[in-house]
Write a structure and sequence with these properties.
326 residues, 3 domains, mainly alpha, elongated, Arc Repressor Mutant, subunit A, two-stranded antiparallel ribbon
């Protein structure tokens, strides 16, 4: 007796998506690109021949979007282009290769040492629990260990890093890496360092808003303008009271530029003026000197005018004498 089973119709079939798709790709990928991946992943089960134009029609997306989506997934090695068609790779295998072939080399001894560190292990466990609901992808463990080594963060800073990105609704590797790099460049190692950094950033933001308001802007300062303010505050060590002097000094000017402010404030810094009183005394001295120069110029002009008049009178007298003698 021969037993046969009917083929399942598409009504009863299922397409299983690996969990790493949700942990590694979902949050950082364009929504249309996700639609394209899900569709080609579904079609790959049936070994179907596909054309990009057909995918565009099926998903009601522009042909250009389909092309960009295929390029995107190809760059991530999720799909591989063949002479005729594509191969859809296993996401689990891709992540496994990342896990054991990290971009920044860490020796097995370092990984073992990190895993044995009680505080570090506890921090990673808290990250998993607080921000990944206990299902953090294995590749995150490798990245966290790399960041510990590369930036020298302590456990509190690493927790703060994930908390910051989570509150920004940007808990994906590229963003976390960008923030970690910024903190590293600002020599943040301990939570005290981080607290001081946030305090400086808050001071900067407050001053930027104050400057924008005093200049009558209805928008935030541009990146270019913000860079000037950061130079005055961070590099020169000035506060808003000194910047205020520069703003008041330009009240008679129409639309003064940040270039002008920078030249003025930089001239104070170049003269090693560090306080409001020192700058005010300097401006009074400059004002007095300018007044003296103007008075000297006025006196010189007056003397020159008188001398010219005397010469003219002498010449006129001589002409009159000659006329009389004639």
């Amino acid at each position: 007796m021969k037993l046969e089973q009917n083929d399942k119709s598409i009504l009863f079939s299922t397409t299983e998506i690996p969990d790493v798709f949700f942990t590694e790709y979902l949050s950082s990928t364009n929504g249309d690109f996700i639609k394209v991946y899900l569709y080609i992943f579904f079609l790959s089960k049936y070994n179907r021949d596909i054309k990009l134009a057909d995918v565009a029609k099926a998903l009601s997306l522009p042909f250009k979007t389909i092309q960009e989506a295929f390029d995107y997934w190809e760059n991530l090695d999720v799909i591989i282009k063949k002479p005729k068609g594509y191969i859809v790779n296993s996401l689990q295998e891709i992540e496994l290769n990342k896990l054991y072939s990290p971009k920044v080399n860490i020796s097995p001894e370092d990984l073992e040492k990190n895993s044995k560190n009680e505080y570090r292990a506890k921090a990673i466990e808290n990250i998993n629990s607080l921000y990944f609901q206990g299902i953090m992808s294995p590749s995150w463990y490798s990245s966290i260990n790399l960041w510990f080594k590369k930036y020298g963060f302590d456990e509190q800073v690493m927790l703060a890093l994930f908390d910051y990105c989570f509150n920004k609704s940007a808990l994906h590797k590229n963003y976390v890496q960008t923030v970690a790099d910024a903190w590293g460049k600002n020599n943040i190692r301990t939570f005290t360092d981080l607290d001081n950094y946030f305090e400086k950033q808050e001071k900067l933001n407050t001053i930027k808003k104050s400057i924008s308001k005093k200049l009558g802007y209805h928008k935030d300062l541009s990146q270019f303008e913000s860079a000037y303010v950061e130079k005055w505050i961070v590099d020169y060590g000035y506060d808003m009271s000194i910047i205020d002097l520069a703003l008041k000094k330009t009240t008679s000017k129409v639309n003064p530029t940040f270039d002008y402010f920078d030249k003025l404030i930089s001239s104070w810094h170049d003269r090693n003026l560090k306080s409001v009183s020192e700058i005010q005394n300097f401006m009074e001295e400059m004002k007095a000197k300018n007044k003296s120069v103007k008075e000297l110029e006025k006196k010189a002009t007056f003397n020159s005018y008188n001398q010219r008049n005397y010469k003219d009178l002498d010449a006129m007298y001589e002409n009159m004498q000659e006329a009389n003698n004639g």
